TrEMBL record:
Compartments in which it is found: Cell membrane
Name of the protein: non-specific serine/threonine protein kinase
Domain of life of the source: Eukaryota
Thylakoid keyword on record: no
Membrane-related topology note: Single-pass type I membrane protein
Record InterPro entries: LRR_dom_sf, LRR_N_plant-typ, LRR_R13L4/SHOC2-like
Length: 198
């Protein structure tokens, strides 16, 4: 009888240890990589009205966060960030190059804020991007030629910023582009020839 008690006690202790280890492993998994990229983007923004307060590093994914829409690519896949809509949130600061880590992003709307500095070159890594709206901000410097790698891009709105220089020749590679609006900048030169899709 004594041996049976010891065995039960040992089994209970072993089970308790396994449950604790399982919980610790689950908690240390933490926020997925896309959520980490978004937190880096948030760290470069001034959010005076605390619109992004629910962007929390203790979540496992950013899919429940305000302004973030996720989708799954396949049945068994984890959800990926599909859309980021920070339109008219009174944000200032600048756009982090971490935006380039959101490789499944199809729509990015940062319009009507007060974002400044340059449009990061890493945005060219967002190869699924179809809609890019950066209008009504304070983006400056040249339009990055890396935008020419976004072969799925249909809409590019960059008007009412402080962009300068020519529109890069690489924009001509955007065969899917149906809308390019770039007025109220300091852009020089002419629009590159675009090879439109038939």
């Amino acid at each position: 009888m004594n041996m049976e008690r010891i065995s039960r006690r040992f089994l209970m202790i072993t089970m308790s240890v396994l449950v604790i280890i399982s919980l610790l492993v689950h908690q240390t998994r933490g926020l997925n990589i896309e959520g980490q990229y978004l937190l880096d983007i948030k760290s470069k923004l001034v959010d005076k009205f605390n619109n992004l307060a629910d962007w929390n590093s203790t979540d496992s994914t950013p899919c429940g966060w305000i302004a973030v829409t996720c989708n799954t690519l396949d049945y068994n896949d984890d959800p990926v960030v599909w859309s980021l809509d920070l339109n008219s949130m009174n944000l200032s600061g600048w756009l982090s190059p971490s935006i380039g880590g959101l490789v499944h992003l199809t729509s990015l709307d940062l319009s009507s804020n007060e974002l400044s500095r340059n449009i990061p070159k890493k945005i060219g890594n967002c190869l699924s991007l179809e809609v890019l709206t950066l209008n009504n901000n304070r983006f400056e410097a040249n339009i990055p030629k890396e935008l020419g790698k976004l072969s799925c891009l249909r809409i590019l709105n960059i008007y009412n910023n402080r962009l300068s220089g020519p529109i890069p020749e690489e924009i001509g590679n955007l065969a899917s582009l149906s809308q390019l609006v770039a007025y109220s900048n300091n852009i020089s030169g002419s629009l590159p020839a675009i090879s439109w899709e038939p």
